[in-house]
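Bug #77: duplicate submission created two jobs. Keeping one. Sequence:
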Amino acid sequence: MVQKVFVTYNEVHKLCQASADRILNDFKPNLMIAIGGGGYVPARILRSFLKRQSAPNIPIQAIGLSLYEQLPSSKPSDRSDPVETPGTKVTRTQWLDLSSLEMANLVGKNILIVDEVDDTRTTLEYAVRELQKDVETAAQKLGSDEKAQFSIFVLHNKDKTKKGHLPQDMMDDGRYLAAKTVSDVWICYPWEATDIDEHDKLAAAQAKY
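Kept job's structure:
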């Protein structure tokens, strides 16, 4: 049976708080791009910790990516009940408007990509690769040779073999940060809960062990 780990809003808040200084000092982001839907809440919480006196809030933009596939149950008696598991094909559900000023505003910027979990790394690989291509296209249209520098922040990194790969210079430069590394468990985030009280009770019960 897959182990479930219930994460509370307080835990998310503290993970963002603990990571903020390094992000601010090392990554120096001008802009955050949240991968929906798991990256929205961490990005918003993180922005409060990245705010500095007399400086404007760091803007947050959003993209939507879906990575899943349905496989039949492994139980012969329950073949009709599909289960959801990380897939191999990334589908865009929301993206930046390439015809607007959004892309031009990314040229030459330090951009922090935010998501909740690094599972197979396929989604993160896609996001970085496609955003880099789009920013390069925008720079060419502007006649600029400036490049955007991408960094990544996730709440949790699953300690497992990854299917996706991030740019080697990003990893070598330390522009990847996971607030916490966990085993290959099923992480239940509070924004996925339909009963937050029950979710918090399960989180509190698990903390006792």
